[in-house]
Amino acid sequence: MKRKINKIIVHCSATRPSHDIDAEEVDRWHKKRGWSGIGYHFFIKRGGQIQLGRPLEKSGAHTKGLNKNSIGICYAGGVKEERGEDGKWEAEDNRTNQQKDSLLSLLKLLKNIYPEAVIHGHRDFSAKACPSFDATNEYKGL
After folding, report:
1. What is the Cα–Cα distance from 119 to 123, expressed in whole angstroms?
2. Which of 7, 12, 30, 40 is catalytic?
3. Nearest CA to 119 among 99, 136, 133?
4. In the annotation, is 128 catalytic?
5. Is 10 helix (H, G, I), strand (E, B) or coil?
6. Cα dist. 61→10, 46, 72, 127, 135 in Å?
7. Distance separating alpha carbons of residues 62 and 19, to the nearest angstrom
8. What is the helix (H) or strand (E) element at residue 102, kind and residue range?
9. Residues in the chain, pLDDT under 50
10. Whether residue 120 lies in the annotated active site
11. What is the pTM of this model?
């Protein structure tokens, strides 16, 4: 059965800019949480490389209650290099130019395949800063 996609949801990994993680590392994190594997369909490394996560035919595990009809994209980064004075990680839009280019290209491709899908940030559906920028507003013209 083909999934009816009506949302494309952008996430960040909530990692420091110096921590260039990849889809394999996120897959390990998610398996430790008891999931079947990486919850995102695509992952974008700091250098802009787009990596595949879950197959598009399979529901993701990225946005509670919305996985059935959405595609999840995550990029490495999203928090400042150092913790804040309170000891917590603070959100920061630290996407590299390569990540911005790759994300834009991927979103354009997905909008061609799923023209009815609306692009959102995870923060639109959760009390989190993820993805550390306003994806809904930034990509509303696509």
Report:
1. 12
2. 40
3. 136
4. yes
5. strand
6. 13, 22, 8, 17, 19
7. 21
8. helix 97-113
9. none
10. no
11. 0.95
First to last CA, the chain: 27
CA 11-69-24 angle, to 5 degrees, is 45
In the residue annotation, 74 being an active-site residue is answered as: no
Tokens for 43? 């992952």
What is the C-alpha separation between 98 and 50, in angstroms, rounded? 10
The owner of tokens 């995550």 is 74
Q: Which of 102, 122, 95, 97 is nearest to 7 (CA)?
A: 122
Q: Is residue 30 flagged as an active site residue?
A: no
DSSP 116: T
What pLDDT, on the 0 to 100 scale, is given for residue 2? 80
- Please give the backbone phi and psi of residue 50, each rounded to the nearest 5 degrees, phi first: -95, 125
**Tokens (6 digits) for 100:** 């911005």
